[in-house]
Amino acid sequence: MIQADSQVVSIITINYNGWRDTCEMIASFRRYETYPYEMIVVDNASSGDDVERITELCPDVKLIRSERNLGFAGGNNLGLPHTMGEYVFFLNNDVVIKAPILQTLVDCLSTGRWGGVSPCIEFFYHPEEIQYYGCTEMTPVTLRHTIEPFDPSRRDDFLHPHETEVLHGCAMMVRRDVIDRVGPMFEGYFLFYEEFDWSLRMRQAGYKLFYEPRAVVYHKEGATIVKQTPLREYYLRRARVMYARRNVRGFRRWLSCLYLLGVVMPGKIVGHLKNRRPDLAAAVWRGTWSGLFASITIRR
After folding, report:
1. Which of 66, 45, 41 is nearest to 54 (CA)?
2. Is residue 13 a part of any domain in this protein?
3. Which of 54, 79, 177, 224 is disulfide-compatible with 42, CB 3.0–4.6 A?
4. Count of CB atoms situated within 10 Å of the CB of 95
């Protein structure tokens, strides 16, 4: 077992056929970050020469190669045993920083009040727009968010630090003792909803979560999972049903599943067919039914 070091932040990032983004992210930390950190890159069975490229361009990182694609949670969990920091920063490979951020996030968690923190996340190609400024837990049954939509004309209103119910999977720092108590992320989703599930488990264990806008990362959203693809639709619909089965309690669980199958699925299918995308409609059908029967048990 690796001894935790309170003076180091362990950064875990997943690479999947995206060595250029991964190396750009690492380069931005080399350029701007001043707080001690270690970089753990988990290659999630890339099909090309990503491992060789990263090894050549970033020889100082810890590179872990998976023989199969373990998904978002599985890849991050694979990197956990190789970390030495008291704080673990889970970071998408398609982000960059333009100023130091780790000290600000560590200061937040070092008070002991907060179990996890996410920075402000701005879109890389449209930095005037904020992607993440805190998030509310999804409503029961419909699993919708009630957070106020971002308004560019009131940008400063979204830059106030506050407690949040959900961390953002793109960038979230969690104390090691919290991970030890709550356990790692549930790997059954493969893609999507992992941070919602994990954030809920942290809060159920008594930990509070925080949004810290003084730290900012810039996200090239869609670099790994492109929107409007059957892959994305399949795993998004699958994860939503699985989340309902895992986390909605009592009679509301069945209402939520019925809503997802009887209202959301038909609506999405009809919408895709109208847009002449039968491939997306089929992905919605397959993903929804897969989520209804997929295992929702954490394997220890």
Report:
1. 41
2. yes
3. 79
4. 23
Quote the CA–CA distance of 50 and 59 in Å, as a whole number.
13
Question: Residue 173 contacts by C-beta under 8 Å, 6 or more apart in sequence?
Answer: 9, 87, 88, 89, 90, 105, 106, 109, 116, 117, 118
Same domain, 212 and 239: no
- Report how far residue 98's alpha carbon sits from residue 262's, in angstroms, rounded to the nearest whole number: 46
Q: Any idea which residue has 């106020």 for tokens?
A: 148
Report the 10 Å Cβ neighbour count for 158: 17
Cα–Cα dist 35/195, whole Å? 25
Structure confidence at residue 226 (pLDDT): 61
Q: Each residue of 39-84: pLDDT tens digit?
A: 999 999 999 999 999 999 999 999 999 999 999 999 999 999 999 9
Query: What is the pLDDT of the chain when averaged over all its residues?
Result: 94
Query: Are the C-beta atoms of 146 and 138 separated by less than 8 Å?
Result: no
Length of the chain: 300
The pLDDT tens digits for 278-292 are 999 999 999 999 999
Q: What is the predicted pLDDT for the residue at 300?
A: 45
Among 94, 104, 105, 111, which residue's Cα sits nearest to residue 224?
A: 94
Q: Which two tokens stand for residue 46?
A: 């890339």
Does 151 fall in a domain? Answer: yes
Statement: the pTM of the whole predicted model exceeds 0.85: yes
Q: Phi-psi region for residue 193, left (φ > 0), alpha (ψ -120 to 50) or beta?
A: left
Rounded to whole angstroms, how far apart are CA atoms 207 and 223? 32
Angle in degrees, 0-180, between the axes of helices 278-293 and 230-247, rounded to the nearest 10: 30
Per the structure, the complete domain to which residue 196 belongs is given by 5-219
Sign of CA dihedral 162, 165, 171, 172: positive
How many structural domains is the chain composed of?
A: 2
Residue 283 CB neighbours (<10 A): 24
